Amino acid sequence: MERRHTRKFVRTFFTSPTAVEGEDDSAKMIRRAADLRGMQAPDVWVPDNEDATAPSMRDEGAQNIIDVVSEKGGDFPGEIHPRIVWHRDSPTTRYQGFQHMLTIADPDNGAVENIDGFVIPEVGGIDDWKKADEFFTIVENEHGLDEGSLAMSVIIESGAAELAMRKLRDEMGKPDNNLERMFLLVDGEVDYTKDMRAITPTGGLPPWPELRHNTSRGASAAGCIAVDGPYDDIRDVEGYNERMKNNQAKGMLGIWSLTPGQVVEANTNPLPPKTGSWLLDADGREVELTEEDGVFVYDGDRISLEEDGDEYTLTVGGDTQTLDEEELQSELLDLASYVPSMDDIVDSMAEFEAAKEAGTGAIAITRAATLRVDGVEVDIANDRMWDEATYQAAQTPITLFQDVYENRPDQHDELAEMYGADVVERATDVGN
Amino acid sequence: MERRHTRKFVRTFFTSPTAVEGEDDSAKMIRRAADLRGMQAPDVWVPDNEDATAPSMRDEGAQNIIDVVSEKGGDFPGEIHPRIVWHRDSPTTRYQGFQHMLTIADPDNGAVENIDGFVIPEVGGIDDWKKADEFFTIVENEHGLDEGSLAMSVIIESGAAELAMRKLRDEMGKPDNNLERMFLLVDGEVDYTKDMRAITPTGGLPPWPELRHNTSRGASAAGCIAVDGPYDDIRDVEGYNERMKNNQAKGMLGIWSLTPGQVVEANTNPLPPKTGSWLLDADGREVELTEEDGVFVYDGDRISLEEDGDEYTLTVGGDTQTLDEEELQSELLDLASYVPSMDDIVDSMAEFEAAKEAGTGAIAITRAATLRVDGVEVDIANDRMWDEATYQAAQTPITLFQDVYENRPDQHDELAEMYGADVVERATDVGN
Amino acid sequence: MERRHTRKFVRTFFTSPTAVEGEDDSAKMIRRAADLRGMQAPDVWVPDNEDATAPSMRDEGAQNIIDVVSEKGGDFPGEIHPRIVWHRDSPTTRYQGFQHMLTIADPDNGAVENIDGFVIPEVGGIDDWKKADEFFTIVENEHGLDEGSLAMSVIIESGAAELAMRKLRDEMGKPDNNLERMFLLVDGEVDYTKDMRAITPTGGLPPWPELRHNTSRGASAAGCIAVDGPYDDIRDVEGYNERMKNNQAKGMLGIWSLTPGQVVEANTNPLPPKTGSWLLDADGREVELTEEDGVFVYDGDRISLEEDGDEYTLTVGGDTQTLDEEELQSELLDLASYVPSMDDIVDSMAEFEAAKEAGTGAIAITRAATLRVDGVEVDIANDRMWDEATYQAAQTPITLFQDVYENRPDQHDELAEMYGADVVERATDVGN
Fold first, then answer.
1. Which helix H or strand E contains B323, and what residues bound it?
2. B15: which of A184, A351, B46, B96 fits an S-S bond (Cβ 3.0–4.6 Å)?
């Protein structure tokens, strides 16, 4: 389904407490967040008047949102979507959330022109989503805003909400709602774990692969954007990046960020690398090879290779094979894979476009390299067929890049520094 | 959705054949099962008049249920839910199941006051569930029982039934059914495998992770309880416990048991351990460290560590790194994880409750330990942020324990022996 | 749900370009494909007038289908289901597809008597499926064919289509459609990856396990047949077979084939092996043991075993245990598994049938073997309980074989050569 929003992609969903007790300025955290720029600034910033803010501070938090967003919102480079309180099981909480929306969106308070929408946590079945949508409509109507102009994002943190996503496509467009305002579907794994009553021995969060799949699919079917929940272990940068890679293979390209440091990682991670690299599957572990003068070198202990005349002895893990040169090449080709750079992807796309222009529907894209294991060098070459479908599937990271480039001028300098101006220019042009 | 049943959790679902041919007393198996007490007695006992009993013995089986449950059911410590025959594709079978329900639930036969509900196997789409529900209603009406007083549990053993679960939340509460009686959603993987026409080389059951996720989610969305199917290899206690751990990370806290020995394992497994322990990820395999005088020792071959002045050489699998002390600590912290004891969980909950009382919304819970690898000792400390959501998610095993404690007085002695009276008392008090 | 089609199983879905530019005979590829016989001929052959054929060649492609199928279709041993163009987002494309269907199915053109149905790519929600179904109905009506006589298969290559599958069971049988014509649900992972906007570092396809589960479940619930998408790396025969094994554990027994070589693999893979074999789980990798004079030998480096009097030292990966004989047997039994041959399965089925006849509901099937590791021989014996459900679940590969045998006489010779005439005869008789 067509996406109705300015942003086609959202890499980062950054929450800040709206009111902190015991500070001179209770709005300190959102005031600081509003000043973020470039890679530190998220695609979507969420002044969080729910879980990040103590219940007793939430009225003050709503006022702080008004103060900070009316002052600084106009210069903020990303979108702004405050999170208000909501709960499928509590009419009190829902009414409080409605009142906060009414206040924050009041044009007399000066913030609403910089506010793109609201985030609704703890939703239940689709009828609960409709209650929230109806409050958006009333708020818009009361304040003379266009119907549907405020985007609605939800946190998926119950089994009921997970089931509701599949209905969105059918419900959107019905005359009695304005669900076309739906924007982000954001997983909230901590509360989801509670709702599902899951237990792990260490108390760590389960991986919930099916939830993430269903959120990504729900977003695809309803023209929304899928975002993964918070990654608590802020210290663990590698784990955070690993999670993003896993999410991306599910079509979930956005993730929650808890700190500006996580924002930088999450803004950068889905973009193709500057430099291509070769990986080798070393007995179940993927190892990146080191380039030395154009040769890609494996220097771990999990793979060993000996040459004896025409014969090669290859040992991977505990398994040893004696091979001739061709068999060795074939075996290493199976273990090796290439991670293309931004430039490589642009090259392949341009090559395919030229072939299509000339009337050819499919071409082979070849990646060749010399690998070195235990001093023995082996040439491998990997062919991949590209047709229209491959081309379009490969295009996703480039389309993402182009969406970033168009909507985030504050990141142009950092992108140019990352890739070089030349690659940036080619990447913004290709495929259009 | 709110759970409407006495038990909030069901750990064990134990089936017994209702009538065995060639025995003096064909009711021998259920007579013996009705005498089980303590950890050997399941939360839900299922006199099984379907697959466990030969087709020719099922009328006798229904009579045996009446005889045994009317005599011994009042003293049985768990709930009693006989399984009757049913099949989405066979009206003959459905009518036979209805007749057995009518007889077993007849108050003149003396069993129904000890019967909590019935288990319906082989259901199809939601309309098939409604046919069974209607028979419950007629049985209740004929026998002067309250509408909805007999719980209905189903075995999910077809793709159609898997799909039906997502509709339950929408259908419950409609005036033409009494589906609020729904209690357990139980996976039946053998027949499900047949229905899905899956093949494995060894003939073993596929793991069906998506089915188990969907059952757990369906239970969460409809206020039911999710239970996994039978684990055939009775000899393999380790595998059974492994399966339960995997299920628990999906929110499926109950499992089928085929023997009193399996009941003991399944009643015990979801409860937190008596003693905390440290695990180390040794090149992909989680190894529990041995405590020696307060130091946690790794003595396998997958990780090795050498100290040379300020420098450490750490080898995990085939990968060797040279690290300073701080890097080593960080590396081992990544590999280590702590499994909290019941007492640890209660401590953390009490600590958070006190902080919340004092107006603090989030605290760090620290776990510190000295690890020893190849004689080298390293101190590590693991901080975890706890906020309201973490607190509530961590509470699940304690709530489970409290549900067990309240509903299963016959297990009090064994629980006191497992944990000590002091820990039991703290665990029953915390969080209320 | 009951399957309404001649074939209960489809192993192979083979696509061929309908019109190739720059050839003397643009129909060359389908002309050649129409001549395939035996294991090289697919269960379902798909002259592909969509992605495999250039857009400019598709009118010629439709004509080529008519020419080749009217001439050679009568002798083709599999079913014939041309793929036409379709897109959920393009009425132009849908109308073009309709026109091609009208022409190809025109009895005056002589092809339709050999055509079993059409394949519709790029479907969206269920209402989009209904649009296609309506065109089938109009085509049938215009040409005097029975309503519902042309089967409809779809390619699942969008989140919306994935969601639609769960509705099929509810929609079939409604008076305003003829969706009972539904036949194959075929995953199309390249376009699905694009639609879901997934990214992988290497550009390879994500594994999409949830999609494949949902397709298999959708097929089970609606009486259709599930087929996996193309496996691009034609060179990688091992990977293709690995994928099929993975699919089969999900109940997805069919797969796309891009070459006659892949057709042979995919026609053969789901059939039980000629010879049984023992596998050993060698530290996470399954290794097939080599038979030497009735003893099954492990000769890798991942497991080692030493005998010292009554004591055995077993090392698996880095973990060493000292065991007595019984413990060693139990440990090896846990690591070992048996892959039964066609003959073994038939034996077990016959054994269970005889027991059932004699009034026994469950029997133990024992597999015994002598294993040899590092020269030490150990006897193990594996018992498995068979009851009615086990019997029926184990029957799937035999039912598949029988379906092949009945519908593909052109494969009889190859099957007799694979298994021997005796085994083939027993396998066609058992279970009926």
1. strand B319-323
2. B46
Please give the CATH architecture assigned to the domain spanning A12-268.
Alpha-Beta Barrel (3.20)
Which stretches of B197-249 are DSSP H helices?
209-222, 237-248
Kindly report the CA angle at B390 between B389 and B391, in degrees rounded to 5? Answer: 90
Instruction: Flag if C221 and B54 touch (Cβ within 8 Å).
Output: no
**Nearest CA of chain C to the CA of B199: how many Å?**
5
Please give the radius of gyration of chain A, using alpha carbons only, rounded to the nearest integer.
25
Task: Using CB atoms, list chains with 3+ pairs below 8 Å to chain B.
Answer: A, C
What gap in Å lies between CA C415 and CA C427, rounded to an integer? 11
Name the residues of A annotated as catalytic: 387
Quote the minimal CA–CA distance from C318 to chain B in Å: 5
- Nearest CA-CA partner of A9 in A395, A274, A401: A401
Signed CA dihedral, B366, B367, B368, B374: sign only: negative
Q: Note whether ipTM > 0.85 here.
A: yes
Give C221-265 pLDDT, tens digit per residue.
999 999 999 998 888 899 999 999 999 999 999 999 999 999 999
Find chain B residues with C-beta within 8 A of A166's C-beta: 166
- C228 CA: distance to closest CA in chain B (Å): 14
In what side-by-side order are the strands of the sheet with B277-282?
B285-288, B277-282, B336-339
With 0-12 / 13-18 / 19 or more C-beta atoms within 10 angstroms meaning exposed / middle / buried, residue C4 is middle
Task: Give the pLDDT band of residue B382 (cuts 50, 70, 90).
Answer: confident
- Tell me if A191 and B392 make a contact (CB, 8 A cut-off): yes
pLDDT bracket for residue A420 (50, 70, 90): very high
Q: Is C302 on the interface with B (CB under 8 A)?
A: no
Instruction: List the single best residue of A2, A213, A398 to mutate versus C (max C Cβ within 10 A).
Output: A213
Among C54, C197, C210, the residue with its CB nearest the CB of A210 is C210
Please check the confidence at residue C374 and state whether its pLDDT lies above 80.
yes
Q: Which residues of C touch A334 (CB under 8 A)?
A: 236
What b/e readout covers A196-224, taking b as 16+ CB neighbours within 10 angstroms? bbbbbbbbebbebbbbbbbbbbbbbbbbb
Please answer yes or no on whether A253 and C201 come within 8 Å at the CB atom. no
The pLDDT assigned to B397 comes to 96
Q: How does pLDDT run across B201-217, given as a tens digit for each residue?
A: 999 999 999 999 999 99
- Taking the domains of chain A in order of start, what are their residue ranges? 12-268, 277-393
Choice among B236, B334, B383, B387 that is catalytic: B387
Q: What is the pLDDT of residue B4?
A: 63
> Hey, what are B137's tokens?
């209603």
Which element (helix H / strand E) includes A256? strand A254-257
Tell me which of C389 and B314 has the higher pLDDT.
B314
CA atoms within 13 A on the CB side of B302: 19
**Looking at residue C4, what is its pLDDT?**
64
C257 φ/ψ angles, rounded to the nearest 5 degrees: -130, 140
CA pair distance B148, B150, nearest whole angstrom? 6
Burial class (CB in 10 A: 0-12, 13-18, 19+), A428: middle
d(CA C134, CA C140): 10
CA distances from A190 to A46, A155, B11, B391 (A): 18, 11, 23, 10
Q: Determine, for residues B203 and C340 on separate chains, whether the beta-carbon distance falls below 8 Å.
A: yes
- Are C42 and C78 spatial neighbours (Cβ–Cβ below 8 Å)? yes
Is C354 in the A-facing interface, judged by CB distances under 8 Å? no
- pLDDT tens for residues A154-209? 999 999 999 999 999 999 999 999 999 999 999 999 999 999 999 999 999 999 99
Provide the 3-class DSSP secondary structure of residue C119: strand
Give the pLDDT confidence of C267-290 residue by residue, as tens digits: 999 999 999 999 999 888 889 999
Query: What pLDDT does C3 receive?
Result: 56
C300 near A CB under 8 A:
yes
